[in-house]
């Protein structure tokens, strides 16, 4: 959930289904419900967030907004023009 640049991730980790041919000796990850909140910078494009979940890992991709990227501007110098980057 995203509200006012605060991204909230909520999930629940449940026990692995038991199987006759697999025996778990030790599990170091806690079970249950958890939540994380991340404050996102204004320079990020929150309209284009992508999320993926693979092998127990959540990956979030949040691009930088176009208005925050460097751009070239023209500066008038006397009678001519010069271009700078920044």
Automatic annotation (TrEMBL):
Name under which the protein is recorded:
Hsp20/alpha crystallin family protein
The record places domain SHSP at 1-78
> Which family does the record assign?
Belongs to the small heat shock protein (HSP20) family.
| Record-linked CDD domains | ACD_sHsps-like
PROSITE patterns this protein is in?
SHSP (PS01031)
InterPro entries the UniProt entry points to: A-crystallin/Hsp20_dom, HSP20-like_chaperone
Pfam families according to UniProt: HSP20 (PF00011)
């Amino acid at each position: 959930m995203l509200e006012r640049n605060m991204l909230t991730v909520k999930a629940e980790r449940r026990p692995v289904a038991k199987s006759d041919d697999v025996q778990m000796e030790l599990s170091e990850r806690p079970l249950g419900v958890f939540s994380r909140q991340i404050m996102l910078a204004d320079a990020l494009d929150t309209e284009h967030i992508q999320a993926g979940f693979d092998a127990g890992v959540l990956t979030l991709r949040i691009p930088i907004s176009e208005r925050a990227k460097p751009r070239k501007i023209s500066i008038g110098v006397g009678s001519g023009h010069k271009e700078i980057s920044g």
